[in-house]
Amino acid sequence: MRGIVAIGNEAICAGFALAGIEVHCPGADAAGQEALERRFAEALGHAAVVVLSGDCAARLPAPILAAARERGAPLVAVLPVLGEPGGTDPLVERVRAALGIAS
Known about the structure:
With 103 residues, this protein is of the alpha/beta class. It has five helices and four strands; from the N terminus they run E-H-E-H-E-H-H-E-H. The chain has helices at residues 10-18, 30-46, 54-59, 62-71, 90-99; strands at 4-7, 22-24, 49-52, 75-78. Helix 1 links the parallel strand 1 and strand 2 (22-24). The radius of gyration is 15 Å and the shape is globular. 20% of the residues are buried.
């Protein structure tokens, strides 16, 4: 199978699942950490694109993530971690400023 696999938190996974994409939502406990590393390795073996939420990417061992991204195949995309709900996100503020939109 050469599709897209998304690995992330519940919100990220829900969105990708609605699009029909294979998703994995590992927990934050020790079992979730083991599942995250296992699912990432499996995805690297069969997907064309692996999408990671920023929080899951931060939990992977840095050398493993770096090696996967440097290989280039499959493409490993890390989604940015956005600000807290109700808070101000620096990226959103930069985009609004660049577009001349008042916040």
